Amino acid sequence: MEDILSVQGVNKHFAKVKALDNIQFNLKRGEIHALVGHNGAGKSTFVKVLTGTYIPDGGTIKLENKEVVFRGTQDAINQGIGIVTQEGSLIPSFNAIENIFLGQEETRGGFINRRKLVSKAKSLMKTLGIELDLYKQVKDLNPAQRKLIEVLKILNINPKILILDEPTAALSENERVKLFSVMRKLKNDGISIIFITHYLDEVFEMSDRITVLRNGTHAGTRFTEKSSNDEIVKLMIDKDHHSEYPDKNHELGSVLFEVKNVSDGLKITDANLSIRRGEIVGVFGTVGSGRTELAECIFGARDRKSGSLILDGNELKNRKSVPKSIENGLVLIPDDRLKKSLILDDPVKYNLTLPFLGEISPLSWIQFKSEEKKSQSIVKELNIKTPTINEKVKNLSGGNKQKVSFGKWMLSKDKKPKVFIFDEPTEGVDVGARAEMYKIMVDLASEGAGILLISSDISEIKGLSDRIYIMKEGSIVDEVQNVDITNERLIQSSLGV
Hints:
Elements: E1 3-14, E2 17-28, E3 32-37, H1 43-50, E4 58-63, E5 66-68, H2 73-78, E6 81-84, H3 96-100, E7 107-108, E8 111-112, H4 114-128, H5 143-155, E9 161-165, H6 173-188, E10 192-196, H7 200-206, E11 209-214, E12 217-223, H8 229-237, E13 255-263, E14 271-276, E15 280-284, H9 291-299, E16 306-311, E17 314-315, H10 322-328, E18 330-333, H11 337-340, H12 348-353, H13 368-382, H14 398-407, E19 419-423, H15 431-446, E20 450-454, H16 458-464, E21 467-472, E22 475-481, H17 487-495
Parallel strand pairs: 3-10, 3-11, 6-9, 9-10, 15-20, 15-21, 18-19, 19-20
Antiparallel strand pairs: 1-2, 1-4, 4-5, 7-8, 11-12, 13-14, 13-16, 16-17, 21-22
């Protein structure tokens, strides 16, 4: 197959930070080429170069053997490069048709020709073999339907290259299968796909070749059928896969936190669990089992209708108060960091210091030097890759956004949390960044904190947890000790079989 895209020696700097260093990459016509790497490895920067958001400082990009320089995102679109981002670009209050043809509307007599747009949308759907409600507002559709609308929006510009950035992060298994079917159809139609995902099983299922970036450099390209999971992981983090989960050598202490007969009157029914000092307790279940609702109920983001929470032997009286929970030493790193945890347009330093402004604001005046010092300390401790602490959070990679998401809870010296609730902490995060986050969790536990880890990743749950509670339909239906943890036990209990 011939190259449709060739990248040679591309560099990109931000101040003193070298984000891309001599990147080599080529994409063949009708190929699915996986792009993987540690969060902060340069994937996002590279994609922004390919889509015209950034102009590289050096190197060449050739599209169909012709050297190109994209002067903006529209320039890249005009030349046939489209992207479906992880965060999405749809307008929630618009329907599918309005989103697909936004900025590309066809008119007749000065009015939008809706009949023609509907016909064109149906034709695009037929090409992919899918069915969607074209008139329902996007906010009322499920994640897979929204992702397919994003694809249709790109197909409307007749792309030569489609970039899919973490497209399955919020999808169920059935939705993922449907998206993969669409990807195969696009490949067969001659469209080249750059596929970015942190799920290596998806990489080996879908891609023809794999390119690994590490620390802004090209770590290697492999033919998928001739490579292995361990080889790719080693390229990503430059060390063996078995080191992903850190050793836990500390002793567990007495019971630190108890949840007794907690219900929210809607989703959660009579939940009971406990966490000892230094213990990592997992919560596993299928999508919709009530895991996130339980976390929000414990944290005070959801009303607790009945039951009790006991921390350090004392019952917590508040039923729905996030500030009180924080004051008591309970913190939550939520499942959707973009909507529930971060202020994307604010700098890193503001996000890190927000929960504990009182510590740096005597007499209600922020001490900016103290704010910068504390922020720099957390950035260094968590290895958050950012040009400066003044960088907007939205410009960071997924893994570094997540580090900011829970780094803010580690800033306080006066009110250090006792219980950390991590809800899907590594969703959209690559292998290397996951390993760093796992170490942070284990370090927190070794210091005596209690960790509640909610995850749908069986390997993650087994690799980190001392005990696991399994949820089904809003109730805890099983408890498994570490020595008894098996895939079969977890899956059977979660499905009720």
